[in-house]
Amino acid sequence: MFTYLGKRILQSAIPLIVVVIGVFFLARLTGDPSSLYLPLSATPEMKADFAARNGLDLPILQQLMNFIGGAFTLDFGESMRTGESAGAMVLRAFPATLQLAFFTMLFAIIIAVVIGCWAALKPNGVADRIVSFFSMVAASVPDFWLAILGIWIFAISFGILPTSGVQGGPEVWILPVATLMMRPVGVLAQIVRGSMVTVLGQPYIKVAYSRGATKFFVVTRHALKNAAAPALTVAGDLTVGLINGAVVVESIFGWPGIGKLMIDSILMRDFPVLQAAVLVTAVAIFILNIIIDLLYAVLDPRVRPTGRSAKKQGKADDAAPTTGIRTVKTGAIKAVVGTSTSSISGTQGASA
Predict the structure, then answer these.
(1) Counting CB atoms within 10 angstroms of each CB, which of 60, 165, 184, 318 has the fewest?
(2) Burial of residue 36, with CB atoms counted within 10 A of its CB: 0-12 exposed, 13-18 middle, 19 or more buried
(3) CB neighbours (10 Å) of residue 280?
């Protein structure tokens, strides 16, 4: 297991380096920060002093080497806006995003498992058709549209929920969590439904029914555990998407998370904070994928990273090595660059 973890860390080194270098250069395409932080009447001497204080007067490769070297010591420099440590700002904002992603996936998994199992009990029945239609709609509707619609209905029209912020009781969580939860519920409901239909058709399920087991007992004690592995994999990927893709939703609801911090840093050309935020997010995505792979192996021994199970059964000679563990998707980590790129492009369009 430790050998497997070591290999996965080495495999993820390349995408992490690509993320670091990509964001470093893409951030600088937004323009010269001195135009935002200095008055229009700033003299060349003032601009040169600003560049020297923020290390922008160095050659571009030297700036990159300084950033990479500082990343190993968690020294990302100071924010151009506030003068505060960029790493401290990111670590202060990241827990808010993790909390939002945790509660979103918690409720999404509960709802998806319930309606997915309900639909699987009678395939092609009324319940199945209702769940299929709902999941298709939920998985297709954009998050930003749901966020705006939710604010218009529940905050402006009825005035029962706050529009933004985190100050208050549980009501401040309802709109952000409900908005982010729709797509995971739609996707997971279909995965759970498909897995449960397959498992419920297995012979051992019929044997359990023949012994007098109730439908609730069969579903919860036999079928659900065996159907959980595919759903766990998809849930992990969706969680990665929440951490990486909650940028727009956090901005709409004023949620003080890593996504809003990225947007603010792009708008203000705060390079140290943006680079620190993207790097921390990429590392978190990698760690989450490792955890998902380990949980997947626990649920399904057939895909464990070693061949011990086969050897114990005396099948090591003629059994092919099992490598069914999910591979950490390079695209999941590189998606961080995609999010920053789209945000930077949108910012340039707005500035134009």
Answers:
(1) 318
(2) middle
(3) 20
Residue 5 pLDDT class (50, 70, 90 cuts):
low
pTM for the model stands at 0.73
**How many CB atoms are located within 10 Å of the residue 29 CB?**
11
**Cα–Cα–Cα angle for 94, 52, 346, rounded to 5 degrees:** 45
Non-local (6+) Cβ contacts of 119 within 8 A are 127, 128, 130, 131, 132, 189, 193
Q: Which residue has the tokens 């204080």?
A: 53
* Side chain identity at residue 350, one-letter code: A
How many CB atoms within 10 Å of residue 350? 8
- pLDDT per residue over 206-258, tens digit each? 888 888 888 888 888 878 877 887 888 788 888 877 876 677 888 888 888 88
Of the candidates 238, 285, 237, 235, the residue with the CA atom closest to the CA atom of residue 258: 285
CA gap 114, 121 in Å, rounded:
11
Locate 183 and state its tokens: 């797509």
Angle at 96 between CA 84 and CA 328, to 5 degrees: 100
Per the CB < 8 A criterion, the answer to whether 281 and 257 are in contact is no
Structure tokens at 275: 């680079």
Please say whether the beta carbons of 273 and 89 come within 8 A: yes
Which residues are within 8 A (CB) of 136 and not within 5 positions of it... i.e. 6 or more apart?
Answer: 186
Taking the CB of residue 12, how many other CB atoms lie within 10 A of it?
20
CA separation, residue 268 to residues 142, 249, 279, 348 (Å)? 27, 19, 18, 12
Q: What is the DSSP letter of 58?
A: S
Residue 295: alpha-carbon gap to chain centroid? 17
CA 251 remoteness from chain centre: 16
Q: Tens digit of pLDDT for each residue in 60-85?
A: 888 888 888 888 888 888 888 888 88
Q: What is the tens place of the pLDDT at every residue in 150-209?
A: 999 998 998 888 887 777 778 888 999 999 999 999 999 999 999 888 888 888 888 888
Give the amino acid at 55: G
